[in-house]
Amino acid sequence: MKIVIAPDSFKGSLSALEAAKAIEKGVKRARKDAETLLVPVADGGEGTLDSLLAAANGKKVQVNVKGPLLETVQAEYGLLRERDICVIEMASASGLYLIEQSQLNPLLTTTYGTGELIKHALDNGCRRFILAIGGSATNDGGAGMLQALGMKLLDADGQPIQFGGGALRKLTQIDTSEFDARIAESEFLIASDVQNPLIGRHGASYVFGPQKGATSEMVEQLDQNLGHFADLVEEQTGIRLHDKAGAGAAGGIGGAFQAFFPSKMSRGIDIVIEYTGLKEKLIGAECVFTGEGQIDFQTASGKTPMGVAQEAKKHRIPVFALAGSIGQGIDVLHEHGITSVHSIVNGPMALEEAMNRGAELLEQTAEQVIRTYYGNRG
Fold first, then answer.
1. pTM for this structure?
2. Any bridge partners for residue 295, and if so which?
3. Angle value at C-alpha 150, between 46 and 190, nearest 5 degrees
4. What fold characterizes domain 48-266?
5. Which of these CATH numbers, 3.30.160.100, 3.30.110.40, 3.40.50.10350, 1.10.10.10, describes 2-40+280-374?
6. What is the pLDDT of residues 6-65, one digit of tens each?
7. What is the dihedral of CA 240, 244, 247, 251, to 10 degrees?
8. How many Cβ atoms are within 10 Å of 264's Cβ, its own excluded?
């Protein structure tokens, strides 16, 4: 029997690969004859790089870049040699996890380090890119990234503006004369599920600013600044980002890609499914395991378990989703291919204990699911 194991990471507890190995142990305890195929996956956020590298036997390149608050951080990107593709997780250079909660301030945080990663990869000969843009700490419209790649963002005195979303209000001129010419020769596939426009009540600042440390006053200022930036971009390129779907992704960096890069946006899970070869690996499988830390009604919006289930449903393969926590509204998931959802928490316990015991709990739950599934089948 062939069983495909394709979970996302259990954030703060297990990577996707660690989760897959734990599930495999449980499956093997129940059925020693099972043929297990591990396909760790992600939805375009944290873990996307590792998932794609594992599938393509790629390698990581480590680079010191400017972090969100201009501190030096060691970031990384991946090289999928067989396909000549560079994979960058924006969070590696410009992520929320790089900043203490007390220091979060989207008026100051910058995407400059993400631009430095792209530049390093260009210097390394890369011309095809996958950008996973989840988990950013920024709200600068991608301005820092553009600056790192040679674009001059100037104030009324012809001087470069400072970094961060708060500085965009001083922008009066966008000078693309020294923007890295290699960008136009390259391809950028942007992994993002976000369809929000750049500005307005559904835009980058109002929807995502608060989780990055923005107060209500800061949200209004950031939204106005992005609107001002969008006005100048439209004058420069003819591209209107204000209400463009996806432009609000990752603090507006989605808009920068749409305006200045040869780019295409796609659901993160769809990209991962394609490049891990999950579609082909599902053929002939008897069942599939997937999962992540939290499963609820939001899972249906393109998160990993839903993407895996949608593919499995095409082959009429049952899908078992394992979760650390199960929220409201999971009934809708059954319509899209998830056969059943199982909490791995087997008794009263604190969150810290559950996270520390993640591998053990996953193993136990997977074993019981398989025993139940095959119990009456011999």
1. 0.89
2. 326
3. 30
4. Glycerate kinase, domain 2 (3.90.1510)
5. 3.40.50.10350
6. 999 998 889 899 999 999 999 999 999 999 999 999 887 778 898 898 888 889 999 999
7. 90
8. 11
